[in-house]
Amino acid sequence: MSTTLLLILDLAGIAVFASTGALVGVRKELDVFGVAVLAVMTGLGGGVLRDLLIGSVPPAALEDWRYLVVPFVTSLVVFAFHPTFGRRERGIMLLDAVGLALFCVTGAVTAEEAGLNVLSSSALGMLTGIGGGMMRDIASGRVPVVFRGELYATPAFAGALVASVVHHEGWSQWWYIVAFGTCLVWRILALKRGWSAPLPPGTAHV
Amino acid sequence: MSTTLLLILDLAGIAVFASTGALVGVRKELDVFGVAVLAVMTGLGGGVLRDLLIGSVPPAALEDWRYLVVPFVTSLVVFAFHPTFGRRERGIMLLDAVGLALFCVTGAVTAEEAGLNVLSSSALGMLTGIGGGMMRDIASGRVPVVFRGELYATPAFAGALVASVVHHEGWSQWWYIVAFGTCLVWRILALKRGWSAPLPPGTAHV
Amino acid sequence: MSTTLLLILDLAGIAVFASTGALVGVRKELDVFGVAVLAVMTGLGGGVLRDLLIGSVPPAALEDWRYLVVPFVTSLVVFAFHPTFGRRERGIMLLDAVGLALFCVTGAVTAEEAGLNVLSSSALGMLTGIGGGMMRDIASGRVPVVFRGELYATPAFAGALVASVVHHEGWSQWWYIVAFGTCLVWRILALKRGWSAPLPPGTAHV
C-alpha cells in the first residue's frame, strides 16, 4: 500500500478514535487538558501498541508530529462543540466503525510488512483496532466496550484476516477495500440488527 | 533449559492462565468473543510484557502461531463447559498456582539468557508470572488479586530468584525443579493455611 | 546533562513517586508485598514506558539494580511509618510536584538524546511524568488523578517543552533549572490557588 495513503488513512482513523475519547472525557467532566490526554491516548493507543510489538520504535506516533497534532486538535474541537457531537451519537457510532475498519487493515498490513505470519498479522490488526478504545475505557474506569465481541473483536479480526491474506498472496491493492468493507459492514449490521454472539451456556440473554 | 521443554512449559502455563481469564469473562457474562479476547490477553500478557522489556520483539507470542491458538482454544473449551470448571474452583486455584510457578521460572530464565543481572531477572520472572492476571483484573474492572502479595508476588519472586541463581551459577538444570517447587509449595501453603503477610500498622487483620 | 546527575535526579523522582504509590496501597489495606508491587510500579512506570517508546531496552530500570532497590526500600519505609506520612499530606503533594518536575525534565532530555523532535520529546517528557501515577491509579481502581489536567498534564508538558528546547538549541545546562521550575511553580500555584482549567461548555464548575 502506498505510504502516503497509509498515512492519510491512519490519521483519519486516529482523529475518529480521538473524538470518541474526547466525548468520554467530556462526559466524565474532565477539564480541557484531561480531555486532551484521554483523546490522544485513545487515538494513538492501538497504533503505538502495534509498533511496540513489531519492534518499530520510536513508534510512528512519535516520529511524525502530525500524529500528535491531529488527535490533540480533534480533542479541542470536540471539547468546544461537544453538545453537537453528543447529539450525533449515531454519527459517532458510524465514525467509530470506520475507524475500526481503517485500523484493522492498516495494522494488519504494517504487521505483514514487518514479516509476521498471517495469523499473527490478523491478531495484531485486530489489536490495533481495539487497543485505543480499550485503553480509553480502562483509564476512565469503564468496562471496555471492546469486550462486546460481536461488535468489535470479530469484525476487526475478520477485516484484518482478509487484509493479511491479500498482502501475503500479493493480490491487487484494490482488495484492501474488501478487507475494509468486511469489517465495516459486519460491524454496522451487528449494530443495526442487534446481532449478538453466543453468551455463556446457562446465561439468559438480556 | 532445552528450547522444546521451555516451549511446552510456556504453553502449559498459557493454557492455565487463559482458563482463569475465560472464567472471569464468563462470570462477567461477556459473549464468546469477548471471553476469547480476555482469555488470550490473560494467557499471553505476562510473557509479552517480559519480551517487550528485554527487547525480544516481535514477542514469542506473535512469532509462533501455537501461542495464539492454545489460549484461544482453551477459552472456547472453558466457555462451553464453564459450569464444570466453575464447580472446580479448588482445581482452578491449583492450576493457577502451577501456572504461576511455571511462568516465574521460564520468565527468569529468559531474562537471564537476555543478559540481565540476577535481581532484574527475578523481578522480570515475577512480572511474567503476575502480569497476565493483573491485566485480566484491570481490564475487567476488579482490584488485581496479585496485590494480595502473600499469594502471588512473594512466591513468584522467590521461585524466580532461585531460577535466576541456578542459571547464573550454571548449576544443573534439575535445580529448576527446586525453583518451580519453591513457588508452588509456598503458594499452596499460603492458600491452605491462610498465611497472610503483614498489613499496614494500625490496620486490623480482617 | 551529566549522566551521574541524571541518575541521581531520576532516583530521587522514583523514590518520591514510589512513596505516593505506597500510600495508596496502604489506604487500600494491601499487605506489605502488595504495597511494594504497587510502589515499584508507580516509581518505575513512567520511565519504563519512556524507555520502551524510544527503544532503549532493557529499560534503565532493569539494567541498574538501584532502580529496583530504591522504590522497594521506599515502600517498606512508607509501609512501616505510614501514619507519619499520611499526616503530612501537604508534604506529599509537594514531593509529588517535585517528582513530576524531575521526571518531565529527565524524560524530555532522554527523548531528545534518542533523536526525537521537540514536540515528541515534550510529549514523552510529560508521559514520563504522569505515566507512573496513571498506572498506580488504574491498577488500584481509581480514576487517574492525572486527568485533572491543570494539575498534571499542563505543567508537565510545559516543563518538558522548555527542557526539549534547551536541549535542542544546545543552551547551557543551567536552563534545565528553568524547565524544572516551570513545572514545579505552575503545579504548586495551580494547587494553592485552586486554578482550574476550562471544563466542557455546559458543565457547572463544582
UniProtKB/TrEMBL annotation, chains A, B, C:
Question: Which family does the record assign?
Answer: Belongs to the UPF0126 family.
Protein keywords: Cell membrane, Membrane, Transmembrane, Transmembrane helix
Give the UniProt subcellular location, in the record's own words: Cell membrane
Q: Which domain of life, per UniProt?
A: Bacteria
Please provide, in alphabetical order, the Gene Ontology terms of the cellular component aspect for this entry: plasma membrane
Bilayer topology reads:
Multi-pass membrane protein
Q: Which InterPro entries match?
A: Gly_transporter (IPR005115)
Q: Spell out the protein name for this chain.
A: Trimeric intracellular cation channel family protein
The organism of origin for this protein: Aeromicrobium yanjiei
Which PANTHER family does the annotation name?
Answer: INNER MEMBRANE PROTEIN, UPF0126 INNER MEMBRANE PROTEIN YADS-RELATED
Specify one Pfam family.
Gly_transporter
